[in-house]
Amino acid sequence: MNAADLRIIPTGPISPAYKRDIGMQYAKGDILAFIDDDAYPNPDWLKNALENFKYDNIAAVGGPAITPESDTLRQKAGGIIYACWLVSANRNYRYVPKKKRQVDDFPTCNLLVRKTIMQRLGGFDTEFWPGEDTKLCMDITSLDKKIIYDPRVLVYHHRRPVFLAHLRQVANYALHRGYFVKRFPETSFRWSYFVPSIFLICIVIGGMFSFCLPFFRSIYFKVIFLYLFIVLIFSILGVLKEKNVKYLFQRTILSVMVALGIILTHLVYGLYFLRGLSSHKLKEEKR
Question: Which one, of 49, 46, 47, 81, lies nearest residue 67 by Cα?
């Protein structure tokens, strides 16, 4: 693309979903490519994505959003946390390349959609953020169309640094996912989303019982120790995959940040998921 082909359309202070709906109105191509402002594509991003659209029943294509090598140590920690199975479980393909598959919920930081499908759906048509992508994907699959994950459709996504910025993002994700369990159960009422909240409740109730029942205290702290040990192992394994972190001191610091980040991510997600689950309506929802 030449600079002359680039067009910037001012929108003012509106939600990302509405910004993308406006962009759709001006777009001239057949495929709409969505990416976040803190992400950038691999050179073959579009070429690899377009190969999947040769089948008419494929409405959208996405791929992994990996952490750039240029990110700081604190940002890398955030990327490792999201990519860790203890945090993202079987959805960690969103953060590291995995095998090609069909999905039903995918983030718009790396998603390409047929324009005809978007027009048929009326765009995103939502105030949700985050979560506009969950609604869109649910709308797409309701048309009996497919969303494909292709590991070659790759973008680099700068991470929020641990801890505060990362945890604020986690809290926002969890709040919306908890609310979506009621609002969009088709793709959000899944046991894996409930696990951090169940963990948090067990921690609180188990702690209370451990003080009231001395015989239970030993069991409780053994379980906590086992959890911490597992977190540490996964943290070290995640850090070992970071090839451009060469020094032992850096790896040690990074391992500690990742381990603490995983624990805090579990607790914060669990708390805010419950808040979303108990919410009558989120503040951005007008209808």
Answer: 81
- Burial profile 225-261: b = 16 or more Cβ within 10 angstroms, e = fewer: eeeeeebeebbeebbeebeebeeeeebebbbebbbbb
Other beta carbons within 10 Å of 171: 18
* 3-class state of residue 252 by DSSP: helix
Decide if pLDDT at 95 tops 80.
Answer: yes
Please tell me the CATH code under which domain 3-278 is placed: 3.90.550
2 — pLDDT class (breaks 50, 70, 90) = low
Do the Cβ atoms of 196 and 267 come closer than 8 Å? yes
Residue 103 CB burial class (10 angstroms; 0-12, 13-18, ≥19):
middle
Nearest to 241 by CA among 110, 97, 99: 97
